[in-house]
Amino acid sequence: MNGITIALSKGRIFEETLPLLAAAGIVPTENPEQSRKLIIGTNRPDVRVVIVRASDTPTYVQYGAADLGIAGKDVLIEHGGAGLYQPLDLKIAKCRMSVAVPVGFDYAAAVRSGARLRVATKYINTAREHFAAKGVHVDLIKLYGSMELAPLVGLADAIVDLVSSGNTLKANNLVAVEDIMPISSRLIVNQAALKMKRELLQPVIDAIAGAVK
Ligand code: ATP
Ligand code: MG
Description:
- This protein has helices at 12-23, 57-62, 73-79, 107-113, 124-134, 149-152, 167-171, 191-196, 198-211, and strands at residues 4-8, 39-41, 47-51, 68-72, 84-89, 95-102, 117-121, 138-142, 158-163, 174-183, 185-190.
- By secondary structure, the protein is of the alpha/beta class.
- A six-stranded mixed beta sheet has the order 2-3-1-4-11-5.
- The protein is elongated and about 60 Å long.
- The mean pLDDT is 97.
């Protein structure tokens, strides 16, 4: 495609990206929350937005199906980042990657004991690296959502998940016991597209950079 295709996920990333796109003079013509369309036009005839699952954004950009995308650091670590240029931390969709356990579970003692810890998470790579660096032996259990449920029904001792307010943990009688890393969303760019279409892409990247607080 000759113009620019931007991959975005619905929800907080779409909402928090709108002001950054506006700073680059790009305004989507529809809201994906209301529309079922997966390809959305913008005020610029040469720019379109494709709506993808958050964890799929790096894949669309890696293969050049989208030139630009916005993805959480959590998603980028799991993807690995192959074929992606990551020029900007956009400082949006901020939260923390944390270890959480049921209230009353003695995490420190469990770690000291050297027993294998069962950890449920969507973030297998991040979790594996974190516990390996600490020398903690873990059995990782891959889940795709609702991680908070796992310790409550005996599937796992702990979870690795994103935490912002902590309200979801609290509502499920869980508590964060360890911070793994701060998370925010990044602009990602297809490396080949940046070379071939630099005169089109660079002004958009620069305008977004100027709008980041
Ligand atoms: P899905 O809901 O489709 O399974 P998802 O949970 O990854 O996918 P979102 O909840 O929209 O989708 O999250 C998108 C991105 O926003 C995440 O990859 C992460 O970087 C960030 N994020 C997730 N949860 C929070 C949160 N509670 N506060 C701030 N940012 C968050
Ligand atoms: Mg979610």
